Structure formats: C-alpha cells, structure tokens
C-alpha cells in the first residue's frame, strides 16, 4: 500500500494514513462502488423506479457514512497535529448535512415509502467539531502544620494542557483540578504525580496524561514533643472508650523557632474523633488531631494516630 497518495482531483496537499485508516476507507468506497454499479444495472434492465430509488438511498447513506468517518479521522489526526504544531485556529463550527432517509425493518432491509406521508423528505444531521482551549492545571491547598499556601512554592508540570470538545463544555472550563493537598501531611517538601481527569466528551490533545506537583516549604522550623494529653470525642451513646496510647510523639512546625521553644508539652492535646465508629467494638487505631493552646500559627505535621478500645455498655 502506498503510504502517501496524491489527491489527483483537487489540491496538492497530501495525508499519510495508517494502514487501519486506509483499509477502512477503501472498504467503504468498494461497497459504494458496488452499489453504484448495481443501480446502473437496474436502470439498464428497466427496473421499477421505486426499487431503484431504494437502492439509491442506500448508496447515499453509505456515502454519508464514508464522509462521517473521514471527518472523524481528520479531527483525530490532521486537526490535532496542527494544534500541537502551534496552529491556533479555533475550531468551533459544526459539520451539518441534510440527506434523504430510508425506512428499514428490524432485519435492516429497506422498506418502501409508497403511500406514506412525512413532515419532511429529508433529515438534518449535525456533528459538532471540536473546539480547542488551553486550560490550566490546579490543585487545592489546605492550610495546616503552621503554614498556608502563601508560605509555599507550588509547581505543576505541565502548567496547562490543550483540550478539545463541545464548545458548551469547553467554554465553562476555567481550570482542571488535579486533587487536594493537605500541608500538614508533610514536612519540608512534597512531590506527587496526579492523573489528569477530564469531563466526559472532552479530549486531551496534548498527549500528556499525568501532571507532577511539587511543593517546597522553606523558612520553617520543626520540633518534636512528647505529650500525654490524649482524649476522644464523638463516642456513641451506650459505648465507652479506653485510650490505650499513654503518650505520643508529635512534630510541630512554625515559621520561627522562638514560637516552638515557648511551647510546653502540657500545651499540646491530641484528640481522636470516633464519629465514624458508631457501632464498632474492640481495639482500633484512630487518626487524631493535634491542637496547641495559645499558638494558632503552629501545627502538627505528619499522621498522628492513637490506639483505643471501644466497649459497649
């Protein structure tokens, strides 16, 4: 198969098609060619007009199907490549075609329209053509561990991607949310790769399916404390709890060392929330929240867990 076929009937532009694309289009054209030869044969044999029109409508439907597939291939390949090459034309129109229709039974056999009246002899099919847009990638930052987003340097690579889709969807896309990052979950630096998820009907034509997020927190100080102030909340009525963890190490972070040095172990309280353990009994390990009395600009970093035993009265 020749990979580069000239368009002898019109312009000198060429398109290299994959073997799969080529075979699919040629298969449809062979079918159309056979239908046209069949119609000619019917005319030469003085076939009944309605029978000829039925076969002609089938050939028209086959040509329309060829056009739709060729257009779809054009969007997936030529248009997408032009955009990657920096050709910024906006594609926000639609392919509209008006065509006659054929009635068919459950076995896909054509049915005569004799004696039937229709509100219209044609139907209009509209296929929207993709609109493209550069959309920035974003993450949601949750303050914690004594720092806020303004204390961090957040880097996302890539910064944005180019998407294509129905203009009604694409126009409303101001950003693509990758995920949520809690600043209390790490100390110093953070690095994670997020998958890029798009709404249904929108295509990522950049070719990048993941984004790398890096967060640098500089100018902070940490200090580790040991506390015995461990409590529980959210205990279900009719149940009681015994805290098995007697003391726990907690790492606190602040923007200055003076604040950390002024904290005493008794200022720190670790609270385990048991609201999700409505009817649980036995020993469980629970995530806990750390509070520091009198120091709003200090927070714990990393996971803090305590072991408790839940007993039903």
Task: Describe this structure as you would to a colleague.
- This protein is 23% helix and 39% strand.
- It has helices spanning 19-44, 49-84, 167-170, 257-261; strands spanning 4-5, 15-16, 94-100, 103-104, 110-111, 122-128, 131-142, 152-157, 160-165, 176-182, 189-195, 202-204, 210-217, 221-227, 230-233, 239-243, 248-254, 268-273, 282-292, 299-300, 305-312.
- The strands form seven sheets. Strands 15-18-19-21-16 form a five-stranded mixed sheet, with no helix packed on it. Strands 10-7-9-12 form a four-stranded mixed sheet.
- A hairpin with an 8-residue loop joins strand 18 (268-273) and strand 19.
- Helix 1 (19-44) runs antiparallel to helix 2.
Q: Report the strand count.
A: 21
Quaternary structure state of the chains depicted: single chain
Structural class: alpha+beta
Number of helices: 4
> Strand content of the residues, in percent?
35-45%
Provide key terms for this protein.
5-stranded mixed β-sheet, 4-stranded mixed β-sheet, 4 helices, disordered N terminus
Brief write-up:
The chain has 313 residues and is α+β, with helices and mostly antiparallel strands.
Helix and strand layout, with pairings?
Blueprint: E1 4-5, E2 15-16, H1 19-44, H2 49-84, E3 94-100, E4 103-104, E5 110-111, E6 122-128, E7 131-142, E8 152-157, E9 160-165, H3 167-170, E10 176-182, E11 189-195, E12 202-204, E13 210-217, E14 221-227, E15 230-233, E16 239-243, E17 248-254, H4 257-261, E18 268-273, E19 282-292, E20 299-300, E21 305-312
Parallel strand pairs: 7-10, 15-18
Antiparallel strand pairs: 1-2, 3-6, 4-5, 7-9, 8-13, 9-12, 11-13, 14-17, 16-21, 17-20, 18-19, 19-21
Helix pairs in contact: 1-2
């Amino acid at each position: 198969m020749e990979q580069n076929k000239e368009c002898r009937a019109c312009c000198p532009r060429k398109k290299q098609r994959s073997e799969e694309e080529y075979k699919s289009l040629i298969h449809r054209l062979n079918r159309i060619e056979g239908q046209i030869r069949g119609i000619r044969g019917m005319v030469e044999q003085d076939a009944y007009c309605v029978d000829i029109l039925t076969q002609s409508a089938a050939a028209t439907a086959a040509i329309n199907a060829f056009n739709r597939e060729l257009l779809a291939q054009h969007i997936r390949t030529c248009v997408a490549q032009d955009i990657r090459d920096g050709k910024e034309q906006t594609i926000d129109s639609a392919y509209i075609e008006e065509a006659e229709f054929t009635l068919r039974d459950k076995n896909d056999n054509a049915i005569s329209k004799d004696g039937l009246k229709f509100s219209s002899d044609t139907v209009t099919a509209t296929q929207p053509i993709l609109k493209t847009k550069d959309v920035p990638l974003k993450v949601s930052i949750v303050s914690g561990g004594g720092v806020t987003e303004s204390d961090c340097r957040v880097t996302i690579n890539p910064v944005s991607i180019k998407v294509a889709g129905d203009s009604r969807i694409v126009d409303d896309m101001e950003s693509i949310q990758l995920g949520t990052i809690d600043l209390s979950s790490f100390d110093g630096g953070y690095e994670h790769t997020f998958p890029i998820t798009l709404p249904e009907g929108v295509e990522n034509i950049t070719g990048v399916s993941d984004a790398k997020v890096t967060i640098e927190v500089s100018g902070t100080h940490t200090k580790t404390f040991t506390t015995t102030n461990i409590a529980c909340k959210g205990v279900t009525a009719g149940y009681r709890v015994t805290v098995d963890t007697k003391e726990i190490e907690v790492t606190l972070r602040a923007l200055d060392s003076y604040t950390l040095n002024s904290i005493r172990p008794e200022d720190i309280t670790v609270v385990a929330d048991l609201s999700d353990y409505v009817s649980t009994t036995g020993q469980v390990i629970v995530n806990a929240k750390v509070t520091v009395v009198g120091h709003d600009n200090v927070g714990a970093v990393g996971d803090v867990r305590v072991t408790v035993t839940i007993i039903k009265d």
